[in-house]
Amino acid sequence: MTTLADALTDPRPSARLRAVMAAGTEARPSDLEVLVEQCAVDPDLQVREALTWALVRLPAESVVPRLVDELHRPEAQARSQALHTLSKIRDGAVYPEVVDRLGDDDPGVRRTAWRAAVLLAPDGEGPALARHLARELGQGDRETRLALSRALVTLGEDVVAPVLADVAERRGEAVREHVEETERILRDPDAASALALERARREMALGRGKRASG
Residue 177's CB: how many other CB atoms inside 10 A? Predict the structure, then answer.
């Protein structure tokens, strides 16, 4: 009989996905360790999403401490997937551990931590979290900038607008531009897609200009 661990070594993503879906349907606590370990190594996004689903179906009192342990692993994917799954479980008790990852060395982990933090922030923590996140304004590529804007917007206009106004007044052009982008999303959530496209076009134009001048 093929075990879950054996099934997850299959090189076919479809086979691994079937195995994870079956494990999630059964929701056996004995599968916890295998599912968590697979989160750190599986290369397929759809399989990783299924892993999160399967873990959410297990008892939170067992899953949450195990995921918190994953936040300290050297593999960026392990940390990122643990943060993503914690954000789905919505246990606010892990908020301090999530905040510790806001400045993670890996950009992907930072982006996931931003999303998790705004979902898990306890009442009254929004302004402090907004100020913390605002330190990152104006930095990173378009994906990072958009992820930060979306995280800030999730905190709500009443929380974010004063922080954005203060930052725009005190910091440079790149920050002011990023603040303006975030304010557009606050006014119109659908603007996020348009902003991503605009920035992609600007980056492509800059790249062509650099090649032509070089």
Answer: 15
User: Are 135 and 143 spatial neighbours (Cβ–Cβ below 8 Å)?
Assistant: no
Q: How far is CA 117 from the centre of its chain?
A: 9
Amino acid occupying residue 37: E
Structure tokens at 76: 């960026």
Distance CA(89)–CA(200), nearest Å, equals 34
DSSP string, 33-84: HHHHHHHTT---HHHHHHHHHHHHTS-HHHHHHHHHHHTTSS-HHHHHHHHH
Q: How many CB atoms lie within 10 A of CB 206?
A: 10
Sign of the torsion angle spanned by Cα atoms 94, 96, 99, 101: negative
Residues 58, 42 contacting (CB under 8 angstroms): no
- 32-41, 151-160, 178-187, 203-212 — which is least confidently predicted? 203-212
Burial degree of 55 (CB within 10 A; 0-12, 13-18, 19+): buried
Q: In the numeric block, which tokens belong to residue 18?
A: 């079937």
Q: How confident is the model at residue 208 (pLDDT cuts 50, 70, 90)?
A: low
Place of tokens 């104006």: 138
What is the percent of the chain with per-residue pLDDT over 90, rounded to a whole number?
83
Sign of the Cα pseudo-torsion (174, 190, 160, 84, in order): negative
